Amino acid sequence: MYPLRILITEDDHVSALLLKKALERNNHQIIGISDSGEKALEILEKNQADLVMMDINLSGELDGIKTTEIINEKYDIPVVYLSASSDSETLTKVVGTNPSAYVIKPFNIRELNMVIELAIFKDRKEKELQKLNNELEEKVRQRTKDLHEANKELTRALEKEREIGELKSRIVLNVSHGFKTPLTSILSSAQLLQVYADKDHPFKAKIAKHANKIESSVRSLNGLLTSVLFFGKADANKIDYNPKKMYLSSFFQEIVDVVKAGAENDVKIVLKTEKIPRSMVTDVDLMYQVFENLLSNAVKYSKDGQVVDFNVWSEGGYIQAKIKDSGIGIPKAEQDQLFDRFFRAKNVGIIEGSGLGLSIVKKCVEVLKGDISFVSDAGKGTTFHVKVPINRE
């Protein structure tokens, strides 16, 4: 063990000299010998010590325990107690001051050296631990400060994002509504052209052809704007559930009739309804969006002469429907993107579409508290399965 600067505090002069001799034999430096707590504190005030050997019973007003408490508070020096007593009361008092070690008198040199070495080791480890604790506390304080700043920055960013989102929604809604009026006028004019084309006119065929093109384009654009408006409301969390009584058989037949009327290819739709209630209370507009979009897609992506099966039934408290086509299908690698906005599979070719229909379907099904799933193979067709609760909670 390396040499230490040691203060001996012992009121028995003979014991103090014997202890001094034993310590010096191990190359330790004795910076002083005191017989009272007061004198020990005076010596420490003027001299630096590595260790204090402290007798418990001292002359003067300060005993060894009170003196050790002051040393712990002012100097943070390891203290080794010296005592001829080892009774439980004395040990209890000693433990309360967290001593570095305890030696019973009379002591032998070997025991003394071991106790001193233990005291120094304990003190060093406690100081290292305290240093680590201080560093950890500082890191925690710094991390807490950084986290607080990051939270403030995140809050500002979220607030900015919310403001941008609201602005985007307002722009989408305003622009979309702004398009609605001129589109209505264009559509009316196209329909008037068709009326005039029914009369004798040298350009009757051309007028009818271009009027049909105008009307078709306007209806497509109008549908796109309706989709954009829908997502404007969805992003602003303004899609409300407005339940009304609806008659199921007539509802599904109406969807089939509408899709057939707008179809541009020769595809047969086979509607089968079985075991469905006569009526139910739900949001008719959301239901229409779901089934009109799914059935329109099934027809649009099928070839002339193919059949689309539209089966509807009730089971387990749900209205359930399967829409099955034998059209182009969806490539496996792209199926996880099917309900994403503006997504269109690579195999759609020149078939027109906005890529919004199925994302609208998904959102509507969520608002209806229902479920939608599908199976598909490229070139073999797609089957959608929809479940909507008959009694929505």
List the helices and strands and how they pair.
Layout: E1 5-9, H1 13-25, E2 29-34, H2 37-46, E3 51-55, H3 64-74, E4 79-83, H4 88-95, E5 101-104, H5 109-197, H6 204-235, E6 244-247, H7 248-262, E7 268-274, E8 279-282, H8 284-300, E9 307-315, E10 318-324, H9 357-367, E11 371-377, E12 381-389
Parallel strand pairs: 1-2, 1-3, 3-4, 4-5, 7-9
Antiparallel strand pairs: 6-8, 9-10, 10-12, 11-12
Give an overview of the whole structure.
The protein has 393 residues and is α/β, with parallel strands linked by helices. The protein has helices spanning 13-25, 37-46, 64-74, 88-95, 109-197, 204-235, 248-262, 284-300, 357-367, and strands spanning 5-9, 29-34, 51-55, 79-83, 101-104, 244-247, 268-274, 279-282, 307-315, 318-324, 371-377, 381-389. The strands form three sheets. The protein has a five-stranded parallel sheet with strand order 2-1-3-4-5, with helices on both faces. A five-stranded mixed sheet has the order 7-9-10-12-11, covered by helices on one side. α8 (284-300) runs antiparallel to α9 (357-367). It is rod-shaped. The two termini are 79 Å apart. The model has no long low-confidence stretch (mean pLDDT 81). GO terms for molecular function: ATP binding. Residues 5-120 form the Response regulatory domain. Its EC number is 2.7.13.3.
